[in-house]
Amino acid sequence: MANGYESLLQMVHGFWVSQIVRTAADLSLAEHLADGPRTAADIATIEGSDPDATHRLMRACASLGLASHANGAFAGTPLLAFLHKDSPLSLRSYALAQTAPGHWLTWGQTPAAVRAGRTQSHEVLGMSIFDYLAEHPDEAALFGTAMTNLSTPVILGAVGSLDVSTIDTVVDVGGADGAFVLELLARRAHLKGVVLDLPHAVPGATSAAKARGLDDRCTVRPGDFFEQVPEGDLFLLKHILHDWQDEECVRILRNCRAAMRPGGRIAIVEIVMDEDAGGIAPLMDIAMLTMLSARERTLAEFDALLAQAGLRRTRVTQVDDSPYAVIEAVPA
């Protein structure tokens, strides 16, 4: 009983941990400790934070395995390194975005969301999360980077499963920073790419293409995938459909089908739910309910969406040992 009690207590305190991690990221502890141990007073001087409170924060980080403490100084751990902004698997922006007001306030209404079967974002933000981000560009930029960071392992696993040898143009639909299509372009010199997203995402995608030296082959277009999608041969839908209800998903898929050149296809990268799924999948499903009135889906549910959009599934490839899969579809 004691072990169960302690386990549940840790779950209840989960939001404490989230805010400690958020503060560690905000004070750039991973960056400050990257070259060796520092005292809390050192960090406080650099960051302009209260010395005593900074010491207490770093002591809490040590209790979580983010730091170690010896001889009056703190050292970073491999776990803390994932909060470093330059880590190839950085979760810094994700930690900050998930605990920023848009997400934090909406998650606070999860009981009401479950009772009502829909997000309570309008009740706490006055609008949908996407409209909120459009009005808060700093948080939107943070969220865009966070999604890119979170997607990195999935993208690296997914690109290897896609045969692009006979196609010319890849459209990253709702592509944010364009990380998916840019990874494909970096690996295949014959490809051209298009990133489609709302206007607030354009600067980030443009900068990312330039940073990778791919801006000569990648075009960034502001637009709304509910209205129209640019013409192409392969349409990437990564972490898009789980943001929307069925009717909206069908509209997105139909717009992709309408813009598809002969021989083209769609590649959907999403969690594929299983009723007995563990790990992140059922938790992400609640996140979609709470934030967007949306959901994660089973393969049968994806097939139903595809059929309504005039498409049929041709292939499913699991992305490594994750719950994500690449679902490829062509016109029915």
Automatic annotation (TrEMBL):
One of its GO terms (molecular function) is methyltransferase activity. CDD domains: AdoMet_MTases. Residues 10-78 form the O-methyltransferase dimerisation domain. One of its GO terms (biological process) is methylation. It comes from the Bacteria. InterPro entries: COMT-like, COMT_C, COMT_dimerisation, SAM-dependent_MTases_sf, WH-like_DNA-bd_sf, WH_DNA-bd_sf. Keywords: Methyltransferase, S-adenosyl-L-methionine, Transferase. Residues 107-311 form the O-methyltransferase C-terminal domain. It holds the Pfam family Dimerisation. The keyword Nucleotide-binding does not apply. This is Methyltransferase. The lineage of its organism: Bacteria, Bacillati, Actinomycetota, Actinomycetes, Micromonosporales.
